């Protein structure tokens, strides 16, 4: 089995957030890999990873970073694969806002799809939707997952209807 999605994070301290991406991909039966690469500490390895990802069979890259958050952009500059950025509210960030702005404000020609701060699950769902466009079986699994999300809301409304209050109409 070869990985189709690569989850890259600036350091293993981001794993607490990025676990949600791994769990989501796992539940959708999408092969993935996880690596820690730092745009600042090992820039040559980041460039080598990004340039070789497509040849290794990777189809989508999810890149997470906190603080200055250059990792998603550096990866996007070295590959034509879709890159999904996840800004991390890390110990060296300003509540993740600096990370969000670093990822979302990419120059023309170097796009990075940017999720919400700590939005790892949405990054995995978005990656699965990209892949599902050319995989009917995966499309069915993604549709089933989204239907389950809708069912949770419907169930919540059923539960709310049972709540008793004197002035609830």
Question: Could you explain the architecture of this structure?
Answer:
The chain is an alpha/beta fold. It has helices at residues 15-27, 43-53, 71-77, 97-104, 120-132, 136-161; strands at residues 5-9, 32-36, 60-66, 83-88, 113-114. Helix 1 runs parallel beside helix 5, helix 2 crosses helix 3 and helix 5 (120-132) crosses helix 6. The chain is 46% helix and 15% strand. The mean pLDDT is 96. The protein has a 5-stranded parallel sheet, with helices on both faces.
Please summarize what this structure is.
By secondary structure, the protein is α/β, with parallel strands linked by helices.
Radius of gyration: 18 Å
The count of helical stretches stands at: 6
Low-confidence stretches are: none
Give the class from helix and strand content and strand pairing: alpha/beta
- H-E string: EHEHEHEHEHH
| Anisotropy-based shape | globular
Total strand segments: 5
Strand content: 5-15%
**Average predicted local confidence, pLDDT:** 96
Helix content: 40-55%
Instruction: Describe the largest sheet.
Output: 5 strands, parallel
Distance between the termini: 55 Å
Strand order of the largest sheet: 2-1-3-4-5
Q: Mind sketching the topology for me?
A:
Elements: E1 5-9, H1 15-27, E2 32-36, H2 43-53, E3 60-66, H3 71-77, E4 83-88, H4 97-104, E5 113-114, H5 120-132, H6 136-161
Parallel strand pairs: 1-2, 1-3, 3-4, 4-5
Helix pairs in contact: 1-5, 2-3, 5-6
């Amino acid at each position: 089995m070869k990985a189709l999605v690569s989850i890259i994070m600036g350091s293993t301290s981001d794993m607490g957030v990025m676990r949600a991406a791994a769990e989501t991909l796992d539940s959708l039966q999408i092969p993935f890999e996880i690596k820690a690469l730092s745009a600042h500490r090992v820039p040559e390895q980041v460039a080598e990873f990004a340039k070789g990802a497509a040849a290794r069979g990777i189809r989508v890259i999810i890149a997470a970073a906190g603080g200055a958050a250059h990792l998603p952009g550096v990866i996007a500059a070295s590959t034509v694969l879709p890159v999904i950025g996840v800004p991390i509210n890390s110990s060296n960030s300003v509540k993740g806002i600096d990370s969000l702005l670093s990822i979302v404000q990419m120059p023309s020609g170097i796009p990075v799809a940017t999720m919400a701060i700590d939005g790892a699950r949405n990054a995995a769902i978005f990656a699965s939707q990209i892949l599902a466009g050319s995989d009917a079986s995966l499309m069915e699994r993604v549709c089933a997952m989204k239907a389950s999300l809708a069912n949770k809301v419907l169930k919540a409304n059923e539960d709310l209807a049972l709540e008793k209050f004197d002035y609830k109409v």
